[in-house]
Design goal:
The complex is a heterodimer of chains A (69) and B (486).
Chain A (H helix, E strand, L loop, with lengths): L1 H18 L1 H4 L11 H33 L1
Chain B lengths: L2 H23 L9 H6 L6 H12 L2 H13 L6 H26 L5 H9 L2 H33 L6 H19 L2 H30 L2 H11 L15 H14 L4 H8 L4 H10 L5 H16 L9 H9 L2 H39 L5 H25 L4 H12 L3 H4 L10 H17 L9 H26 L3 H7 L2
Helix pairs in contact in B: 1-9, 1-16, 3-9, 3-12, 3-13, 4-14, 4-16, 5-11, 5-13, 6-7, 7-8, 7-16, 7-17, 7-18, 8-16, 8-17, 9-10, 9-14, 9-16, 11-18, 12-16, 14-15, 16-17, 18-21, 20-21
The chains are: A mainly alpha (69), B mainly alpha (486).
């Protein structure tokens, strides 16, 4: 369960930034003053590290649980 | 004093101060004695210093001049750099701490060292080193071009091109020769503080000065240049497929570069690398705004022939002498510091993994270190010659290099996880991948050439590996034992 969750966390930024392009490739609507395509890149620059952080926490929990056993 | 003289003077003073800091931090003789000391700082860098060191080779002349230049000519496709800079880190989070632990255990200083021991093949490691050096040369040239562009623009065309070439050569060569990795690590600190201050200032001030704010600036841009707002950009050559393949391959390639891995191997622990994989990307936020400044330059100073100078000319048109001086110095240091890290990595590869491993096995360690330090001048000279022979836009140099360097990924990273890998299929795959990147253009394949290269590379490895499985299973190898028997 834990591992599947990890794989999903890993894949989401890749799907958002590599596979969804045809759907986000537009100038309108402007979000926070940015054309939509521009906004998309700012969003994922900020969001991607949090996915890595979540993976880090997940793995850390797993290894401490292993040690306790 | 005129504005331009003041700018030139301030630039020179700041660059000079930083170089002195570099000389002082590298003046300890012990920092030059062994390859491990000179090239990876004795594997002794804590989390924060690593942050600056790795940050130093991501934020280079390529970022400031290349990306703004790319946005200036093409528009939206330049954002592929944001995608790759973000995606590189979840990938390295997994394999960089792992390769660090192998390198620390067996005292390795380069990725080629790892390949040599992992596959018991000096030919394969020599090949990996050669690929590293060959594709680093255009990247180093790109940093030299950054220095040259600054001097050219700051000097208002009054400084002769030959003098500019000599300045860039001496600056990078002597700085690197005397100080090794310790100097760029400490000067990277100063450079990074300057980068943040100057870039935040430019990013906030320039749109306000010319258009009243970011929202207004981009509305004007969207009206005047609608084709710059989305893919495939101006000229129409860079669609979604190109964007995805270029971003993905560049992300995978980021830590295959000898200079990035130099930074990573200098870390004190694998844990500090994992934390950096989370913290470093916050550095990337600037990347977005810098790219957008290319669009601002398009509106303010349209019609430039040399797009690589777009940001510099925008700065010259927008700021007074002091502002120009600080900005130019920052961009110059953003070329000098990474150039130095790259040159160290390339000369180390040449001395250890090619000359010592393949031709002079019994050479004393002290001599190898001295040789590596002397190669600094050779590498800088080669990069200069490359630039004179093949002038090209900054971003194209970087993209070509990336296609090539990513081909070592199976040998370096996949081999950490896949026990059955054998040197023969990996060598064939690497060569096949390299050939493929040069065939992609004549075959009219869409997208990014490195992508087709890595497909061929991996396909060859998958097809050939079963034939060598027996051989791999029967051989005894300390690195394989270390990786798979814990």
């Amino acid at each position: 369960m834990n591992r599947i969750f990890e794989v999903i966390l890993f894949l989401i930024p890749f799907i958002a930034q590599l596979l969804l392009l045809p759907w986000v490739n537009k100038a309108d609507p402007f979000v926070i003053g940015l054309p939509f395509f521009f906004f998309w890149w700012l969003l994922w620059l900020l969001a991607t590290p949090f996915f890595t952080l979540a993976i880090y926490k997940l793995r850390k929990n797993r290894s401490t649980r292993k040690e306790q056993r | 004093m005129s504005t331009s003289n003041l700018a030139l003077l301030i630039t020179a003073i700041i660059v000079f101060i930083v170089i002195i800091i570099g000389f002082i931090s590298g003046s300890d003789k012990s920092s030059r004695e062994s390859i491990e000391q000179w090239s990876i700082g004795g594997r002794n860098f804590g989390g924060l210093l690593i942050w600056f060191l790795i940050g130093a080779d991501i934020y280079t002349a390529y970022t400031f001049l290349g990306l703004t230049g790319y946005a200036y000519t093409l528009g939206a496709p330049a954002f592929f750099a944001c995608a790759y800079a973000a995606l590189a880190f979840p990938i390295i989070f997994y394999y960089i701490p792992k390769i660090w632990s192998v390198a620390a255990e067996f005292k390795m200083t380069t990725l080629a060292d790892y390949v040599r021991e992992r596959f018991d093949s000096k030919f394969l490691s020599g090949l990996v080193a050669l690929v590293g050096i060959l594709f680093l040369i255009p990247y180093i040239d790109l940093q030299l071009a950054g220095i040259q562009n600054v001097v050219k623009v700051a000097g208002h065309g009054t400084i002769s091109p030959t003098v500019i070439l000599i300045i860039s050569f001496l600056l990078v060569g002597t700085y690197t020769f005397f100080s090794g990795l310790r100097a760029p690590a400490w000067t990277a600190l100063v450079k990074d503080i300057l980068v943040w201050v100057v870039m935040l200032f430019l990013v906030i001030y320039l749109p306000i000065k010319w258009f009243g704010g970011w929202g207004d600036f981009l509305h004007v841009a969207a009206e005047k240049y609608p084709e710059y707002m989305t893919l495939p950009g101006h000229g129409g050559g860079h669609g979604s497929f190109w964007f995805s393949t270029a971003a993905f391959i560049s992300a995978v390639a980021l830590f295959m570069w000898p200079h990035s891995s130099t930074g990573a191997l200098a870390a004190k622990s694998g844990e500090s690398l994992r934390k950096n994989a989370i913290a470093l990307p916050f550095y990337n936020i600037l990347l977005f705004f810098i790219t957008a400044l290319g669009i601002l330059a398009l509106l303010v100073v349209p019609g430039l022939k040399d797009s690589n100078s777009a940001l510099l000319i925008l700065i010259q048109k927008s700021l007074g002498g002091v502002g120009q001086g600080f900005s130019f110095a920052t961009i110059m240091l953003a070329s000098l510091v990474p150039a130095s890290i790259m040159v160290i990595a390339a000369s180390n590869l040449l001395a250890t993994n090619i000359i010592q491993d393949l031709f002079a096995k019994s050479m004393q360690q002290k001599k190898v270190t001295l040789m590596a330090r002397l190669f600094v001048f050779l590498i800088v000279l080669l990069a200069l010659m490359f630039g004179i022979l093949f002038p090209s836009s900054i971003i194209n140099l970087q993209l070509q290099g990336t296609s090539g360097i990513v081909q070592i990924f199976p040998a370096v990273a996949v081999s950490l996880y896949w026990k059955k890998m054998n040197k023969v299929p990996v060598t064939v795959g690497l060569i096949g991948g390299l050939v493929m990147i040069f065939l992609a253009a004549p075959l009219h394949l869409p997208g990014y050439s490195g992508f087709w290269g890595i497909l061929v590379n991996i396909a060859l490895i998958l097809i050939l590996t079963p034939f060598f499985a027996g051989k791999t299973a029967s051989s005894d190898n300390k690195v394989v034992r270390f990786l798979f028997e814990n």
